[in-house]
Amino acid sequence: LMRPLQGCRGRGVVMGTVTLCLAAGWALQTPGGISLVVPQPNINATVAQNILLSVEYSCRGVATIEWKHVSSWGTTSIVEWRSGNYVNISTVYKDRVTAFENGSIQLRNVGMRDAGYYFVTVTEEHGTNAYGTIIVNVYEIIYEDLHFVAVLFAFLAAVSAILICFMWLCNKSLHLFQKKTTHKLTASTTEEIELETTEC
């Protein structure tokens, strides 16, 4: 299970137990150095999302884990810690990174600048190293929000309804105007015919 690291707090009995477990594990483990597994080497994320850079390592001794980010803006050290001893998070990532005992890190509220390559190095106390890489792609959401689409659709429907009503009123007014003009013409024509008949 993944548990966040707590830094230098909570030593004493826990530290002694961890040391005994690590010593027992080192004594029982067969030679082979460090093993490092990266289950998801490619991550696609959207802006403001939280992502987990997941790894799993095992080694005979106490390991030091270091994460770096490489992009077109340069190389940045994210976090470094030694299992059971210390956690050193870069000031740039201070409020955005959580480190876990299994070597994984969580990066919160990603932005476009967080895209790039993430390199993890696990170093055993005897100097053996293991390396892993995760590629992170970050995408911006441009007008894909369903709320925006729904509001836009409702606005267009309202504008269409208003235009249809306006056209109907114009048509009605024109029809009434034509009817009155026709009635006046008919009345004046009838009067002219009557006058001509009387004169004859």
From TrEMBL:
Domain of life according to the entry: Eukaryota
Gene Ontology cellular component list: axon; dendrite; plasma membrane
GO BP terms, alphabetized: filopodium assembly; positive regulation of excitatory synapse assembly
Predominant cellular place of this UniProt entry's protein: membrane
Annotated localization: Membrane
TM stretches of this protein: 12-29, 146-170
SMART domains assigned: IG
UniProt keyword list: Glycoprotein, Membrane, Signal, Transmembrane, Transmembrane helix
Every Immunoglobulin domain range: 40-139
Cited InterPro entries: CD2/SLAM_rcpt, Ig-like_dom_sf, Ig-like_fold, Ig_sub, Ig_V-set
The name this protein goes by in its record: VSTM5 protein
Protein's organism: Machaerirhynchus nigripectus
